[in-house]
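Weekly modeling sync, notes
Attendees: S.R. (lead), two postdocs, one rotation student

Agenda item 3: backlog of single-chain predictions. S.R. asked that every request posted to the team notebook include the full sequence so nobody has to chase files. The rotation student volunteered to paste the first one in as an example of the format we agreed on. Action items at the bottom.

Example entry:
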Amino acid sequence: MPENYLERIKWLRTLMRAKGWDAVVVTGSDPHCSEYPAERWKQVEWLSGFTGEAGDLVVTLDHAGLWTDTRYFIQAEQQLAGTGIVLHKTRVPEQVLIPEWLERQFGGEGLLAVDGLCLGADFAQSLPGTVLSVPDLLGRFWTDRPAVPQTPVYTVDPGESRREKIDFLRDFLRKTDCDAILLTALDEIAWTLNVRASDIEYNPLVISYLLITQEDICWYVLKEEVEDPQTKATISILEADGVRTLPYGDIDYLASEFSGRLFVDAATLNFQLYSELVGAGVALEEGTSPVGARKAVKNVKEIAGMREAHLQDGLAMERFLYWLERSVDAGREISEWDAAVKLGQLRADLPGYLGDSFETISAYGPGAALPHYVTPHDYAPVLRDGGLYLCDSGGQYECGTTDITRTVPLGRCSALEREDYTLVLKGHIDLAMAVFPEGTPGCRLDALAREPLWRSKRNFGHGTGHGVGWLLGVHEGPQDIRQNLNPMPLQPGMVVSDEPGIYREGKHGIRHENLLLVVEAGQNDFGRWLAFEPLTLCHFDTDALELPLLDRSETDWLNAYNERVYRTLSPQLPREVAAWLREKTLPV
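Predicted structure, as returned to the notebook:
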């Protein structure tokens, strides 16, 4: 409904004229700079109709623009049609990012209004001109805006106690000569306190702030009176460890009440709170939170849990792929949405399943050419006999988090589909086989997955790999595998994805994804070596392969992987599924 978004932009411009603002910057984040915000903070979606996970909006009196990256170009073009909002492309050579664009428009003299609660302090500092924080800026128009969520909170046992983690942070404070640290990233708070909830869909997080001093632990978490027994029990457990629970809104008093040196991470601290702290004269030590790198390295119990989660997830995936193939072969009418629902039902039958780790991408043919395709509930495309089907999905389990993509042939494929399918799998395998010296960052391995595609002058616009949390976010830093120059070295215990792809607009999309555990691979005169262990357990379909494109080492890896999948999963699969899997995993 483009007319709704045209009207909302019109309302905003009326306010801009009344206030004398030259531009308004709206981000797709929340007060904690989260990748996935709760419904209350999906301001870009409300104002523009764009539903992608990454997008920022700039509105001036004569222009409205959405900035997003290569994953969402096709989606943005479709969703912005008729709204008057122009797509500004990022992660491309000719990109002009928001700060530079604003500089060109106003020469550093503009008055820029932002919702400071939903803008990171570091991003705000990069904007030219005068930046004015207007908390809940859209609230005067967004009359049916959802409330701040407060869902039941429970505790987890990841193999390291919250007291140990608090001691780690207090030791960090001593080393940095700070009196307190304010944690604002939701995954870092959940990790530190060993708590989980469902405040954000697909993410087992608790919307809150956490202040730790040498003597006190203040958790700003309560949005309303606590009534559910689970949360009450959790609060009692935390109080026994010295954690005080306070109203979420009381963080507004921190600036006036705190004295001393406060460590903050400007990448996850919102601009409004940052401005209040600076305005009150609080001495800030800005730096990277130590929690991210620490939680990225999984301990023994977390690694064991991740292995179990992937075993369970593999059982659901193989049952799903068996059902899918049999249904298509039988001529049943199965839509993309039907397939997504079926996979969700199979996961729900598994022990310890808590929900999906993100919205399932179930895409056939042209839909799969959108890397972050949103499967429609109504009138979803029907799967046909022939071509390629892509399913990107994952689960949250009591023992860990999964993320898997499989692209499978639904019958006869074209020569181009087979070639693309094989090249992407070749890139996946080449990265999975990597052996690399200690200290190597993921950016130096990214080309391993791309080189087979580059040789054929093909590429993909997203990163090759991201970190994954333990019963936390399916996207986790600070490690990744992408072309961005991220210096964070891969370390034993880290989990990363391996997901190259090829996308042809209007035709097909292909992505093959496993999660990999970084493991030690020995030591010699040249140093210490690392490698990858696949955590994901689900076969790669060999029916669409162009075998001459794979070399011997790649086919050996593929055969060994598929055989491992069969031997691990078949004893726990129904007899007919196990027999089918035996055929699907025979050596090529």
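Discussion: group reviewed the output briefly. The domain at 2-140 is CATH 3.40.350.10 (Creatine Amidinohydrolase; Chain A, domain 1).
Action items: rotation student to repeat for the remaining queue; S.R. to check formatting next week.
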